[in-house]
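Sanity check

After download, print the first record. It should look like this:
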Amino acid sequence: MNPAVHLRSVDISFAVPGKPPFRAVSGAELVVQPGEFVSIVGPTGCGKSTLLNAAAGLLKPSAGDVQIEGAALEGLNPHAGYLFQSDALMPWKTAGDNVAIGLEVAGTPRREALARAHEWLTRVGLRGFADRYPHMLSGGQRKRVALAQVLIRDPDILLMDEPFGPLDAQTRLIMHELLLRLWSQDRKAVLFVTHDLEEAIALSDRVVIMSTGPEARIIGDFPIPLERPRDIAEIKLTPEFLRLHRDIWHLLKEQVMQAYGLQPEATESTGDA
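Expected structure tokens:
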């Protein structure tokens, strides 16, 4: 079976007027298998979202290539649904219309699209909210609508760019549980970008670490052997979770400090002065 996403020796550069191109990402190698949940973690500005945009077909690599389900990606990724940090809800449309619009654009009759949208709103815990407008919903409720908006199209791949970053801690926990429950039902491939190492470990099958930029690269790939299904709140208290967090943070911390121009803490010398 072909990988759902395969980034092969990907470089991504951006033109800078009057200067040489800025190489944001260098030699990125990443494989996401069908049904696998992979998170990318790294310092601010290291190119996590840039890699995600390459997998979505929003950016074309300057070197290397992106393969989706065994075929070279040309243009937008037709197999992927993209959930951004800021929701893409249209304020003049109801929740039901926002969820249904992807089906309508694809040619599904409006009545059928709305019926399926109501089903998805129920699945994300918003039964009876189809007639609400985005300004009438909380941040967590809008995020649920956005999730239903993506999943109703039944993509093979979910690309998620810090989707829960703006939410408060309790709402994020609820969204984590909801995402894992929905994901466990059909096990889509997920590529998830986050700054939150705890979030990455709790959700994922693997956590990938990127170095600080420019010319950021993938420097770590950690399997997460925590049993599923997972209770997000409980699993963070287990010794195995704490061990994984310690091991991954040991590598990540150095990159984060470099990104902020800080020096690693000096270790105490055991030799003679």
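If your output differs, re-run the checksum step. Summary of this record's structure: The longest helix spans residues 239-259.
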